[in-house]
Request: fold
Amino acid sequence: VQLQASGGGLVQPGGSLRLSCAASGFIFSIYAMSWVRQAPGKGPERVAVINSGDGSAIYADSVKGRFTISRDNAKNTLYLQMNSLDLKDTAVYYCGRGYSGSPRGQGTLVTVSS
Reply:
């Protein structure tokens, strides 16, 4: 299983970023997929999960209405559109397989700062 997140960077509060996660080594289309973040000094937080079948999604309350998870099964790619970013969104973001988000791949750092 290989999962490589990308698209992180430095953004001002209120800004937007789109993260991508390239998946390989397993049949991507049959698994639910998750985005998990870990802020400095804190434990991991699953922010969103998308089902394999109907593409329905569940979000953490902390990101609901601001983040959108999506997937392209033809490209074996998972996305996270992040809008209205806040200082509290600063974290390393990982994509993970399944509802538990495990295993996780290499993360991408998102820094929200003015």
